[in-house]
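hey m, so remember when u said the tokens were messed up on ur end? i reran from scratch. heres the input so u can diff it against urs
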Amino acid sequence: MTKQVKVGNVAIGGGARVSIQSMTNTLTSDYGATLAQTKALAAAGAELVRVSVPDKESVVSLGKLVKNSPVPIIADIHYDYRLALASIEAGAHKIRVNPANLGAQGVKEVAKLAAERKIPVRVGINAGSLEGARSARALAELALDAARVFEDAGLTELVLAVKCSDVRRTVEAYRELHKISDYPLHIGLTEAGTAAKGAIRSAVAAGALLLDGIGDTLRVSLAGDPVKEVAVARDILRSVGLRAGADVIACPTCARTQIPVEELAETVESVLRDVDFDIKVAVMGCAVNGIGESRGADLGVCGGKDKSLLFMRGKPYKTVDNSEIAEELKKMIEVYRG
């Protein structure tokens, strides 16, 4: 089991559940826009939100943001260690830095102040910023070396990361880091890509690690609206059994299909997006792919030409007009939950 650090009221590592985080893409100096996006991320399920702090104006905004955000705020710093110090003074719940960019004296000062204020720091390696090819083991050792710089300066409240844009290399590097360190790990695939392909690549990388018991906090890095990152992260954690929620399964459709399976399944997914208990719902296009094929589902629908059969716990429940399927499934969910 990894060590545990506290970021505001969120525990990372030490047996705590894997937390979901994302990062705003607004100008942090624009307080109103950044607070609005932070609230949107929190409403979507983010438990930690990171903001970039590239200048003094952003530090001023950060100070107001940490007082009004519904979730802990992480300040992301590059190059200027003084911005890290100012962010700690402004109340940031955690700092993210790359030690190689701060200079030896900068690292010491950040570590000293963070230790005094009990503010955790994420340190690690981004393979894209390194010169030359590095093996997975070498990347892991570089991350641990970075941690030791902070340890030597008096800070042990650390979270490590070793991110790559390549799926296999990312998984191998984190596996190596997990072998040689007991610090909590921030996992994810950096520069994953657009919403569709990036989600797939992130799911493969993060899913492989989480199934191995590796990873304490997760960010899915997608181009575009960061709220989409949170939805993907939730789905990844649910898929590997680390979060409760709805699992919607659907038949692949064929010439026997009697209902618009894809459309209905997407509607059901939307209805169940915020369900906080485990339930499996099957959307099956015909009688052949009916209760038998989806026997493991808690609720489901077997499509017919005009009417469809709804079932619960493997038994017929009700026959309804196809236009009423979505609404009736909503009611069944409440009955199922009791």
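this time it looks ok to me. The chain has two domains: 4-239, 246-337. if urs says something different then somethings off w ur setup not the seq
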